[in-house]
TrEMBL record:
<dbReference type="Pfam" id="PF16177">
    <property type="entry name" value="ACAS_N"/>
</dbReference>
<feature type="binding site">
    <location>
        <position position="524"/>
    </location>
    <ligand>
        <name>CoA</name>
    </ligand>
</feature>
<feature type="binding site">
    <location>
        <begin position="412"/>
        <end position="417"/>
    </location>
    <ligand>
        <name>ATP</name>
    </ligand>
</feature>
<feature type="binding site">
    <location>
        <position position="540"/>
    </location>
    <ligand>
        <name>Mg(2+)</name>
    </ligand>
</feature>
<dbReference type="InterPro" id="IPR025110">
    <property type="entry name" value="AMP-bd_C"/>
</dbReference>
<dbReference type="InterPro" id="IPR032387">
    <property type="entry name" value="ACAS_N"/>
</dbReference>
<keyword id="KW-0067">ATP-binding</keyword>
<comment type="function">
    <text>Catalyzes the conversion of acetate into acetyl-CoA (AcCoA), an essential intermediate at the junction of anabolic and catabolic pathways. AcsA undergoes a two-step reaction. In the first half reaction, AcsA combines acetate with ATP to form acetyl-adenylate (AcAMP) intermediate. In the second half reaction, it can then transfer the acetyl group from AcAMP to the sulfhydryl group of CoA, forming the product AcCoA.</text>
</comment>
<feature type="binding site">
    <location>
        <position position="312"/>
    </location>
    <ligand>
        <name>CoA</name>
    </ligand>
</feature>
<feature type="binding site">
    <location>
        <begin position="193"/>
        <end position="196"/>
    </location>
    <ligand>
        <name>CoA</name>
    </ligand>
</feature>
<dbReference type="Pfam" id="PF13193">
    <property type="entry name" value="AMP-binding_C"/>
</dbReference>
<keyword id="KW-0007">Acetylation</keyword>
<dbReference type="InterPro" id="IPR011904">
    <property type="entry name" value="Ac_CoA_lig"/>
</dbReference>
<feature type="binding site">
    <location>
        <begin position="388"/>
        <end position="390"/>
    </location>
    <ligand>
        <name>ATP</name>
    </ligand>
</feature>
<feature type="domain" description="AMP-dependent synthetase/ligase">
    <location>
        <begin position="90"/>
        <end position="479"/>
    </location>
</feature>
<feature type="modified residue" description="N6-acetyllysine">
    <location>
        <position position="617"/>
    </location>
</feature>
<keyword id="KW-0479">Metal-binding</keyword>
Length: 655
C-alpha cells in the first residue's frame, strides 16, 4: 500500500513558490539554514531571542546521559511568565490573547492583562488546595479559555499538568490520573458538543471513585447542568478564583524542570506519559510559531483548530503562540455545528490570517462542498498549515485553492507528541511548496531516512524516518519508565531516534512521510494503538480474542477494523437469537466506554479463527488486506494457511 501511495506522490511535481510580498515580510529566511550549521550556537541564539531567562544558561546541550538530553544548562525561567506576564509588562496588556467562541455562539475576548489576572488567581487557588512545585495536576476540560488558564497556572507553579482529552472515557482518565499520581483534577460540568451540552463531571466522579491520588476537584461552570457534589473535595472554579489573592509571585525554575506529561498511544496497550521540560520545549515552540507559522503578534489573528487535549493544542495554542504574545481564536465546538460553514464564518468574522488544521478536517470540508467556504470572505487568510497525518496532494490543492484563494502558502508540518514541536516543514517565505510533502527539516533539526540497517538511503528511496541529533523540545522520557523510553525510541537504530514513521526522500531531497510502520493507527489525526483497542475488546465477557488493524479510509485516513473471536457461549447465544448486529453494537460501545468514542471500531467482524504465525503472532498484514478488500497476500508463514479462506468465506455473505 505504501509503495502505491508513494508512486502517486512522487509523480507530484507541482511547486508553489511564495509570492514576493510574502517572502519579503516573512520571519523565516534562507539565512536560518546557514546559521543552523553550528546547531548548539543556533539554538542558544533562539533560546535568548524568544525567551526571557531569569538566569542565563551556560552550556547549551548536555548529552552525556544520552538518550536523556539536558538543554540550556543552569538557565532558569518561568514558562507562564514568558507566555503572559512579560507581554503585560511590555505594554501589551490590552492585546487580545483569546477570541473565544463557544459552540452555542457565546463569545468572550480575553486580553493578556485579563489572562494575567486569571492565571495568578488560579495559581493561588492551586496552592491553597495543596499543590506544590513538582505535583501533578490533571486537566479534563472542553475547549474553553479556562483550559489555557489552568495549564498556565500549573506552569507558573512548576506543577506539571497532565491534560486528558475531554473525549476520553472515565476509565482512560482513571488510568492516566493513576499513572501520573495527580493530586488535583480541573474539570467542568460539561461543554457543548454538536448542539448540546455534553457532561464531563460524571466521568471525573467515576474516575476518582475508590482508591485515588486525587485530593481536590476544581469544577468550571460551563453548561450549568446539574452535578453531583462531594463537599470538601469539589470546589467551584469561579468561586475559588473570585476569593483568591489577585497576585502571585512567580518563581524561576530550572530549564529542565518538568512542564507537562501528555499521554499518547504506543505499540503496547498502556499509554505512555510523554514528559516535556521547560526551556528547550518553550524555545522550539516559540521559534517554530515564529518562523513556520510566521506569526506576527502585532498584526496576525492566528487559529489552530486542535483540542488542547492533544500535543498540537499544547504547543500551538498555548506555549508557542503565547510565548510570542499572539492573538488567537479559540473555538469550542465542531466545524459543522450549527452549520457546515461555521469555521469559515469565524475566519471572516475574526479576520483570521494564519490557520492551522488537520488533513482529516480538510477532507471532510471537501466532501461537504465548496459552497460553504465560498459563502464567506476568507481574504484575511495569508498562511495555512496542516498537521497530524500525511495530506493527500488533492486535499492540499483544494485547501490552497478554496480556502487560500490560490494565494496562501501552505506549511505541512511533521512532528509528534514526542518531538514536542515542529520538526519538518517548508518555511513559508522560502520554500517552493510541494503538495503532499513535508519537505525539509526545519533549521536546527537533522532528519534522515534510513534502511533496515540504519544506513542513510539515497534520494529517491524510502525507509524509516529518524532524527540524527538531539533537539530542544525532545521528550525527556516516559513518565516513570526510563527503560521503556530507551527501548521504544532508541533501540531500533543505535544512536538514532526512531519516530515510528515510514518516509521517502524524493530526488530533490524532499521528505514524504508515509505513515506509521508500527502498531499505531492514525484515525482522523488521532493516535490509537491496536493493542489498546484489542485489550478493550478482550475485556468484554463475550470476547475470547481480538485483532485490530488500521484500514485505509478516504475520510479519516485510517479506520479501526476489529476481528473478534467470541467465547463459545456467546456464539451460540448470538446464533440462536439472531443477535449478531446487536452484539457488534455492544462491542463498539464497550470500546467507547473503555477508551473513548474516537476509538470505536468502524467495523467489527466476528470470525472463527485469526491468522497466526507458527510462533503465535497475529498476522495483521493479512487482516488489513481483508479490511481493505484486497487480494490477500502471502500466507505461507501461517501456521494454518486455510484460516484466511475461512475468514473470507465467513465474511462474504455479509458483503
Ligand atoms: C503523523 C501530532 C504526515 C505521524 C503532531 C506521526 C504526520 C504522528 C504529520 C504523530 C505530517 C503528524 N505528515 N504524518 N505533517 N504530522 N503525522 O503524536 O505518523 O498525535 O508519527 O502528534 O502523526 O502524532 P501525534
Amino acid at each position: 500500500m505504501a509503495e502505491e501511495t508513494l508512486s502517486n506522490l512522487l509523480q507530484e511535481d507541482r511547486t508553489f513558490p511564495p509570492a514576493d510580498e510574502f517572502a519579503a515580510a516573512a520571519n523565516g529566511t534562507q539565512e536560518l539554514y546557514d546559521q543552523a550549521a553550528d546547531s548548539d550556537a543556533f539554538w542558544a541564539d533562539q533560546a535568548r531571542k524568544y525567551l526571557t531567562w531569569d538566569t542565563d544558561f551556560g552550556e547549551v546541550l548536555d548529552w552525556s546521559e544520552a538518550p536523556v538530553a539536558k538543554w540550556f544548562i543552569g538557565g532558569r525561567l518561568n514558562a507562564a511568565v514568558n507566555c503572559v506576564d512579560r507581554h503585560v509588562e511590555a505594554g501589551n496588556g490590552d492585546r487580545v490573547a483569546l477570541h473565544f467562541i463557544g459552540e452555542p455562539g457565546d463569545t468572550r475576548d480575553i486580553t493578556y492583562a485579563e489572562l494575567h489576572d486569571q492565571v495568578q488567581r488560579a495559581a493561588n487557588v492551586l496552592v491553597e488546595l495543596g499543590v506544590q512545585t513538582g505535583d501533578r495536576v490533571a486537566i479534563y476540560l472542553p475547549m474553553i479559555p479556562e483550559a489555557v488558564v489552568a495549564m498556565l497556572a500549573c506552569a507558573r507553579l512548576g506543577a506539571p499538568h497532565s491534560v486528558v482529552f475531554g473525549g476520553f472515557s472515565a476509565d482512560a482518565l482513571r488510568s492516566r490520573i493513576a499513572d501520573g499520581e495527580a493530586k488535583v483534577v480541573v474539570t467542568a460540568d460539561g461543554g457543548y458538543r454538536r448542539g448540546k451540552p455534553s457532561a464531563l463531571k460524571p466521568a471525573v466522579d467515576d474516575a476518582i471513585s475508590g482508591e485515588t491520588t486525587i485530593e481536590h476537584v476544581l469544577v468550571i461552570r460551563r453548561t450549568g447542568s446539574e452535578v453531583d457534589w462531594t463537599e470538601g473535595r469539589d470546589h467551584w472554579w469561579h468561586e475559588a478564583l473570585e476569593a483568591a489573592e489577585p497576585t502571585h509571585e512567580a518563581e524561576s525554575f530550572d530549564s529542565e524542570h518538568p512542564l507537562f506529561i501528555l499521554y499518547t498511544s504506543g505499540t503496547t496497550g498502556k499509554p505512555k506519559g510523554i514528559l516535556h521540560t521547560t526551556g528547550g520545549y518553550l524555545t522550539q515552540c516559540a521559534y517554530t510559531s515564529h518562523v513556520v507559522h510566521d506569526v506576527h503578534p502585532e498584526t496576525d489573528v492566528y487559529w489552530c483548530t486542535a483540542d488542547i487535549g492533544w500535543v498540537t493544542g499544547h504547543s500551538y495554542i498555548v506555549y508557542g503562540p503565547m510565548a510570542l504574545g499572539a492573538t488567537q481564536v479559540m473555538y469550542e465546538g465542531t466545524p459543522d455545528t450549527p452549520h457546515k460553514g461555521r469555521w469559515w464564518e469565524i475566519i471572516a468574522d475574526k479576520k483570521v490570517s494564519v490557520f492551522y488544521t488537520a488533513p482529516t478536517a480538510i477532507r471532510a470540508c471537501m466532501k461537504w462542498g465548496e459552497e460553504f467556504p465560498n459563502a464567506h470572505d476568507l481574504s484575511s487568510l495569508r498562511l495555512l498549515g496542516s498537521v497530524g497525518e500525511p495530506i493527500n496532494p488533492e486535499a492540499w490543492m483544494w485547501y490552497r485553492r478554496v480556502i487560500g484563494g490560490d494565494r496562501t502558502p501552505i506549511v505541512d508540518t511533521w512532528w509528534q507528541t514526542e518531538t514536542g514541536a515542529i520538526m519538518a516543514s517548508p518555511l513559508p517565505g522560502v520554500t517552493a511548496a510541494r503538495p503532499g510533502s513535508t519537505q525539509l527539516a526545519i533549521p536546527g533539526v537533522e532528519l534522515d531516512v534510513v534502511d533496515e540497517t540504519g544506513k542513510s538511503v539515497p534520494d529517491g528511496s524510502g525507509g524509516y524516518l529518524v532524527i540524527r541529533k538531539p533537539w530542544p523540545a525532545m521528550l525527556r522520557g516516559i513518565w516513570g519508565d526510563l527503560e521503556r523510553y530507551k527501548e521504544t525510541y532508541w533501540a531500533r537504530f543505535p544512536g538514532l531516534y526512531f519516530a515510528g514513521d515510514g518516509a521517502k526522500k524524493d530526488t530533490d531531497g524532499n521528505l514524504w512521510v508515509l505513515g506509521r510502520v508500527d502498531d499505531v493507527m492514525n484515525v482522523s489525526g488521532h493516535r490509537l494503538s491496536t493493542t489498546e483497542i484489542e485489550s478493550a475488546l478482550v475485556s468484554h465477557p463475550k470476547v475470547a480474542e481480538a485483532a485490530v488493524v488500521g484500514a485505509t479510509d478516504a475520510m479519516t485516513g485510517q479506520a479501526v477494523v476489529a476481528f473478534v473471536i467470541l467465547r463459545s457461549e456467546a456464539v451460540s447465544e448470538a446464533d440462536e437469537k439472531g443477535e449478531g448486529a446487536e452484539l457488534v453494537a455492544e462491542l463498539r460501545n464497550h470500546v467507547a466506554k473503555e477508551i473513548g468514542p474516537i476509538a470505536k471500531p468502524r467495523q467489527i467482524l466476528v470470525v472463527a479463527e485469526l491468522p497466526k504465525t507458527r510462533s503465535g503472532k497475529i498476522m495483521r498484514r493479512l487482516l488489513r488486506d481483508v479490511a481493505e478488500k484486497r487480494e490477500v497476500g502471502d500466507v505461507t508463514t501461517l501456521a494454518d494457511s486455510s484460516v484466511m479462506d475461512l475468514i473470507k468465506t465467513g465474511l462474504d455473505p455479509a458483503g
